[in-house]
Amino acid sequence: MTEPELPFLAKARESLAGAESEFANGRYNNCANRIQDALAELQGLIEASFPGAAFAIYPGHDPEGIYLEAMVDVDDINDVLDVYIDRLVDLQVEGQLPVYVVPVRPPERVA
Hints:
By secondary structure, the protein is of the alpha+beta class.
């Protein structure tokens, strides 16, 4: 009689199998690829509603992750937030990606 496998061991085996498959197919850094895809998707969502937006991507430390800064010339920065927040939560929670968006207004608009 075998003992049932603990849930975290099953997940670890699944993750290892996925990593081995990625390596065998020449995709050496799956997490980095997923982060790049997530950043491009979030940028696309923002650009679709705010075509004049300017973007910067940088590593951040509070919390640790990759940050997408979106500079958008709007009266209410919450209008930008509304465009991407649901998808960002999905990427962070379900995708477990350390990706964050920082919407800002141009310096000349901040008073």
